[in-house]
Specification:
The complex is a heterodimer of chains A (245) and B (227). Chain A has one domain. Helices cover 79% and strands 0% of the residues of chain A. Chain A has helices spanning 2-8, 11-43, 57-84, 87-119, 127-148, 152-180, 199-231, 236-243. In chain A, α2 (11-43) runs antiparallel to α7, α3 (57-84) crosses α6 and α5 packs antiparallel against α6 (152-180). Chain B has 227 residues and is mostly helical. The longest helix of chain B is centred in the middle third of the chain and has 29 residues, at 96-124. Chain B has helices spanning 6-23, 25-46, 50-73, 78-83, 85-91, 96-124, 130-158, 165-191, 197-225. Chain B has one domain. Classes of the chains: A mainly alpha (245), B mainly alpha (227). Chains A and B meet through α5 and α6 of A and α7, α8 and α9 of B.
Chain lengths: 245, 227
């Protein structure tokens, strides 16, 4: 097991192993997302209050979860890269940033589409919306810093520090915004004891959450492979790969 | 070669930065002018209705203070980076985070403290009640050092870049939001006669947290930027 991780740290092994995983991940993702969408759009009952428009939550809620999850992964990978000088962790951290930003954006857009009929406005200065918007800016800051620094190793290390600072700040920002103003509907899944959500709605939601996680894994591996190739473009194995017929 | 004690290095660096700033006074005054100008722009933009101005003044003054603090940030490490003394700090025998702390404190004394001094005047313009003005000064005293501390991390990350200014604002402004929320809220609550102990405690907590953690992050960022 340890040997496996050690080998995974080498760009060449990573490139090949990731290449083998990608089709499997893609297959499972497609199956899950189809199952989740079918369950969510067809099987799940209509909400007594919100009608059918609540169904956008099967996209909205998993993306919102992913937006935070990816930021933590990014900071964690960045910290690993800083501490143990593991190149692959840097690559994962950097490849995660645009995906996380996209999920954050998706959560904001779906939230505002849902908010128009429910709240009567595309945007309200609600606590969770606002902290999600701030999260988007944190992602954009990470991406801007990475593209501004020319030497990509330095850039990766600098963005890792920024991501760690951001992770320390996210709870502070979240709670400060929470106390500032709140109007969003309370959490219905993570309540301890019995969740206040119907099981037929919960199951597709969880399926979609797993599908989104797989999608992230899939895309981050694809991006990381490209990044590895770019970084190692002068290495022998990349040349052999390119020269191979 | 004699080695300095840590305390001596700290005070020497603080003194040096203060002295350098006093030799170039316009750099100290510019953020201050900016602060006053921005707060004067708002009444021109939103109208001179006294009731409206009084209700939005805490937010405006704090946003202006935030922007002024951010604009002045660049000078924390810029000149030391350009003449190479920053590298000397990094290879010195003293812990870099303590030296960074000295530099940031000097920077706050130069750019943050003046904001505190003109703030009561700016509070008089929209006719804030005196309780609000006292709170405004208190929140600025607690809040602006946090801004300098957090900002120093951003500057350390961007100091090697040729055009770091815009990126710096993108990095730093989201992190300033908690300070803005608690501080502006406190001034507003004080004006309405509500208790503000909770806001002040939270601001103090932010101050303690940022003073203890941000020099470490700044030192690490400087090492990366100069590597």
């Amino acid at each position: 097991m340890l040997r496996f991780f050690h080998q995974l740290g080498s760009p060449k092994y990573f490139y090949h192993i990731a290449g083998r995983w990608i089709p499997w991940l893609a297959g499972i993702f497609i199956l899950l997302v189809l199952a989740g969408l079918y369950q969510g759009m067809v099987v799940a009952p209509t909400d007594y209050q919100q009608g059918d428009s609540y169904r956008i939550m099967f996209i909205h809620v998993p993306s919102a979860w992913m937006s935070l999850f990816i930021y933590v992964v990014m900071a964690g990978a960045g910290a690993i890269g800083l501490i143990w000088h593991m190149k692959l962790a840097e690559v994962i951290a950097i490849s995660s940033a645009p995906i996380g930003a996209s999920f954050t954006f998706l959560a904001l857009v779906t939230g505002s589409i849902w908010g128009k009929p429910m709240w009567g406005a595309w945007w309200v200065w609600d606590a969770r919306l606002t902290s999600e918007l701030i999260l988007l800016f944190l992602y954009l800051g990470v991406m801007a810093l990475y593209s501004a620094v020319e030497d990509k190793r330095t850039a990766a290390r600098a963005t890792a520090i920024l991501a760690i600072v951001g992770v320390v700040n996210i709870p502070i920002i979240h709670y400060s915004v929470e106390w500032w103003n709140t109007l969003h509907q309370g959490p219905t899944v993570t309540k301890f004891g019995a969740p206040s959500i119907d099981l037929r709605m919960l199951i597709p939601l969880l399926i979609m959450a797993v599908a989104f996680k797989l999608f992230y894994l899939l895309v981050v591996l694809m991006r990381a492979r490209v990044e590895v190739l770019q970084r190692e473009r002068n290495a022998q194995w990349v040349r052999e790969l390119v020269d191979a017929p | 070669m004699s080695t300095l004690s840590l305390r001596r290095a700290f005070t020497l660096l603080l003194w040096r930065d203060m002295l350098l700033a006093f030799r170039r006074r316009t750099e100290m005054i510019n953020p201050l002018l900016f602060f006053i100008l921005v707060t004067a722009l708002f009444p021109l933009g939103i109208g001179a209705d006294p009731a409206l101005l009084r209700s939005v003044a805490p937010g405006i003054i704090w946003v202006a203070a935030l922007l002024a603090a951010m604009l002045s940030l660049d000078s924390v490490f810029r000149s030391d980076f350009e003449d190479g003394s920053l590298e000397q700090f990094l290879i010195s025998a003293q812990p870099v985070s303590i030296l960074v702390l000295a530099k940031v404190i000097a920077h706050w004394l130069i750019t943050g403290l003046p904001l505190l001094i003109v703030a009561p005047l700016l509070g008089l313009l929209p006719d804030l009640p005196s309780a609000s003005i006292g709170t405004l000064m208190l929140t600025l005293a607690l809040g602006t050092p946090v801004l300098s501390m957090i900002g120093a991390i951003g500057v350390a990350l961007t100091v090697g870049l040729r055009r770091g200014g815009v990126i710096l604002s993108l990095l730093v402004l989201p992190l300033y939001i908690p300070v803005l929320i608690f501080a502006a809220n406190a001034v507003e609550s004080a004006g309405a006669g509500l208790p503000i102990t909770a806001h002040l405690s939270l601001l103090t907590a932010l101050l303690v947290l940022s003073v203890s953690l941000s020099p470490l992050a700044t030192a690490a960022a400087l090492k990366i930027s100069l590597s």
